[in-house]
Amino acid sequence: MDQLTHLMQGFAGALTLANLLWVFVGALLGTAVGVLPGLGSSMAVALLLPVTFSLDPTAAFIMFAGIYFGGMFGDSTAGILLNTPGASSAIATTFEGHRLAKSGQAARALATAAMGAFIGGLIATTLVVFFAPTLVKLATAFGPAEYFALAVFAFVAISSVVSDSIIKGLTALGIGLVLALIGVDGQSGTTRYTLGLPELFDGLSIIVITVGLLALGEVIHVASRIHRDPNAVKIPASGRALLSRADFRKALPAWLRGTAFGVPFGVIPAGGAEIPTFLAYGTEKRLAAKRGDTDFGTTGSINGVAAPEAAGNSTAGMAMGALLALGLPVSATAALMIAAFQQYGMQPGPLLFERSGDMVWTLLASLFIGLVILLIINMQFAGLWAKLLLVPRQYLYAGITVLSMLGVYAVSSSVVDLWFLLAIGILGFVMRRYHFPVAPVLIAVILGPLAETNLRNALTISEGDLGYLVASPATVIMYALLLVAVAYAAFKHAAQRRANRASAKVLEDA
Question: Superkingdom, according to UniProt (predicted)?
Fold first, then answer.
C-alpha cells in the first residue's frame, strides 16, 4: 500500500535523535501550557507558534506534533485536579474526573485520561493515514439544516441525560442560551442583552463562563460548606498511577465508544470536540444507570473519564487529517496551525501531499511518536500531578482562585472580565446549591452561536420554509433519535421518582 510506504519514509525522517528531542520538547511545553487554567491547547499552540519559526521546516512540524497533542493532554489534567478544564473540549472529562480526584483517585483518573487520549489519538491518526479521502466526504454531506439538527440533538440529549430532572436540565440549557446571545448580532448588527456596556459587545468569553461555572463556582460552594461539612474539602491524594487489569478491561469499551463518537466530528466543522465529548459522556451515564453503577455521579467513574477523553483526542486527530487533505480547519487549534504551514510557503489542501509529500508524511509519523511520548510522560507523572492535592485545602482553593483570575486576565487583559467571572462563579454556586446541572449551560454557550447561525442560513436558503429543516435523511434521523432519547429519559426519570416514593412510603410504614 502506498500510504504504508510513505508512512515508513516519514518515520525514517522523524526517528532521529534531534527530531525525537524536538517532539519531546513540544509535548512537554504543550502539556505545561495546557495545564494552566484559562489557557488550554489552542493557547499553547498560539504561544509556542513563534518558537517554531526559527527551526527548519522538518524540526518545526515535528515539534508542533508534540505541542498539538500535548496541549490536549494538559487540558484534562487541570480539569481533573482543579475542576478547571484548560479548554471546552475537556469539560465533559472534568465531571467524573474531578469526582475521582475528590475521592482520592486522582492518579487513577489521570492515567485513565492519558490512556484514553492515546487510544483515541492513535486510532484517529491511523484512519487519517489510510482513509482520509473517504472520511472527508462526511463534511460535504452537512449543510445548515444538518448542523442545526446536530446542535438541537446535542442540546436536548445532554440536558435530559445529565440531570435527575428534565426540567432542571432544560432550565440550565436556557441559561446557557441566554449567555450565548449576549453581544452584537453578527447578521443584523444589533446589540442583545449587553445592558449598554461596550465590554459586552463581543459577548462573554467561553473561558470566563467555563472557569466561572466550574472553578470559581466550586470554590464558593466548598467555602460555603466548610463548617457544616468539613469532609467536603478533604481531598485525599492516594491512588495508583497505573491502571489495574480490571480497570483497563472496564475502560476499554468506553475508550472505543468515545473514539467512535469523535472520529466523524473531526472532519465536520460543527464546533470542535465539544459535541462528541458530551455525547460520549451522556452515553456512559446512560450505560452506567442501566448497569446499576453507583460510582457514576458520586465518587466518580473511570468510564466517565475514558470516553470523553478518547472522543476529544480522536476528534483532534481527524481534524489534522481534514486540515491536511482539505485545508479545512475544523477547530481553533487546527486553524492556528495553518499559520505554521503558511510560514514555510505551504498551503494545506488536496495538492499538499503532491507538493510537500515528504514533509506531510514526516508530520504524520511525528503524531504517532508524539502520542507515545505523551503517554509515557503522563503515565509517569500522573502520581506526581496527584500530589498537588496534598496541598492544604485552604491554600489549594485560594490558588485555584488566583490562577483562575490570572488565566482570564491573561487572555483579555480586561478587569471587566474579572467582574463577570465573579458573577458567573456566583451563578455556578447557586446552581450547585439547588442541584442544577452545569453541563447544559456549557454546551448551550458553545453551540448556541452555531445553532443560531445555521438556523438563519437554512431559513434564508429556503425563503422561510420550515420544512427545509427536516428535508434530508440526516435531519430526519437525528430528530427521530432525539425523540426516542427524550421519551426514554422521561420514562426513566418517572420510574425513578416512583421508586423513590415507594421507598419513602416503606420507611414511613416501618
Answer: Bacteria
Cell numbers describing residue 486:
427524550
- 382 versus 395: the higher-pLDDT residue is 395
Within a 10 A sphere around the Cβ of 47, how many other Cβ atoms?
A: 15
pTM higher than the cut 0.85 = no
Residue with cell 472527508: 136
H or E element at residue 422? helix 415-433
Query: How far is 79 from 301, CA to CA, in rounded Å?
Result: 15
Q: What is the C-alpha to C-alpha distance for residues 273 and 265, in angstroms, rounded to an integer?
A: 7
CA of 159: how far to CAs of 9, 278, 314, 315, in Å?
48, 10, 24, 22
Q: For residue 178, give Cα distances in angstroms to 193, 203, 353, 444.
A: 8, 11, 44, 9
- Provide the residue type at 249 as one letter: R
User: What pLDDT, on the 0 to 100 scale, is given for residue 36?
Assistant: 64
The mean pLDDT of 134-159, rounded to a whole number, is: 72
Q: What is the pLDDT of residues 416-428, one digit of tens each?
A: 888 988 999 999 8
User: The dihedral of CA 427, 224, 159, 114: what is its sign?
Assistant: positive
